[in-house]
């Protein structure tokens, strides 16, 4: 028997702290080849950095190509994948490079198929080489490329390129030839006739309850499926599920406008890659990269920006904010336009869009990438969503820009996470609080939410507007209503957010006399 007096107890309880927002997570949807070991239509979670995607989906697959491009930029963000086999009734796209010869001088020509970065082939041409010889050299170069998503077959100087995937993916493969030696002629036939994509069924159920900050979805697939999924994720009871889907499509100016005309989706960003149709040198998207690989690169950079403490100096052009060289929730309000893309080739002068076309596309909800002013890098233009009008058909800019969507999403998540943590086991009253007990009333809830607003206006977030006037406005428009019979608190608030500097207008008046 042990006697120990007095009784002494010290309990350790968790420190009071704010709950931060979750780190980004990406979902990539696309096609695998038969050699891939992954199960079609099932989620493959947490793809690593060890090239396992080559085994899971096949190294020549659409999916492996997208993941490869993503991981070049971003090795930290979690990637989940939903792979699909080609449709049995699908048709593979084909195109041709029809050569004439012989060459009258030796030279080196370059053939790009799909990706200027991954699938650009150097073809050495001897003086006097026939079209058949040159075509055979192109076929050999493609055959030696163990990552190619296409095959090449040459017959008497005509090289037929065939997508390894059935469906519309192959129609997006650009064909480009530069620096042809003297005497060599060329006629390119655009990749076409790819048809019948996999049936994307049950995707919503597969990812039910999982939040993906970014979803990469094939740009040539029907948009109805992803549109429906996004509709169900914007405002969900007792959860935060919203995320932005990124699609890219190479098409004509008119077809891009038709593509986005019916979407009106605040969580969908559609990138357009304008077509070049010059049969003597280049047919396909002006940015010589496979469309869905462009989406993967956008997703990689966006996710890196939102990752706490990630080094994003390579993707931030402003140099006056040293803390913006590192990622985190605060980058939600940092403009995405002018973001450089190191792994995309420049657009040749004359192959892009006019200023009027660019403005018309952006006005209708198409985002674009293009050359910077110096002509030495591809950068993002204004990144807009496809959301144009409210349910009544009135013009609505609430979700026009991706920064508005990201800022609102980060604010909502911060309020949600901290409110759940703060009021996990709390009594509700319309009277005074009793010290030492978990209790809340309207005034206490207002004070707590005001504190969260201040957090979001401070260093590390920079999402809400600081200053006495903005705080006064927030408090004036913060209404907390209690229903004690249901234990229910209803909050109505208006949150002034930080916006992006998009236009600077100045007037310069010339002065000749400065003496008074």
Structural write-up:
The protein is built from eleven helices and 20 strands. By secondary structure, it is of the alpha/beta class. The chain has a domain at 92-192: Alpha-Beta Complex (Baseplate Structural Protein Gp11, Chain: A, domain 3), CATH 3.90.1160. The chain is globular and about 100 Å long. The model has no long low-confidence stretch (mean pLDDT 94). The protein has helices spanning 52-57, 62-73, 131-144, 203-206, 224-231, 253-260, 291-305, 355-363, 402-422, 442-456, 468-476, and strands spanning 25-31, 78-84, 92-100, 107-113, 120-125, 150-155, 158-166, 175-178, 185-192, 214-216, 244-251, 268-278, 282-285, 340-341, 366-371, 378-380, 427-428, 439-440, 479-483, 488-492. 23% of the residues lie in helices and 22% in strands. The strands form four sheets. Strands 1, 2, 4, 5, 8, 10, 11, 12, 13, 14, 15 and 16 form a twelve-stranded mixed β-sheet that branches. A four-stranded antiparallel β-sheet has the order 6-7-3-9.
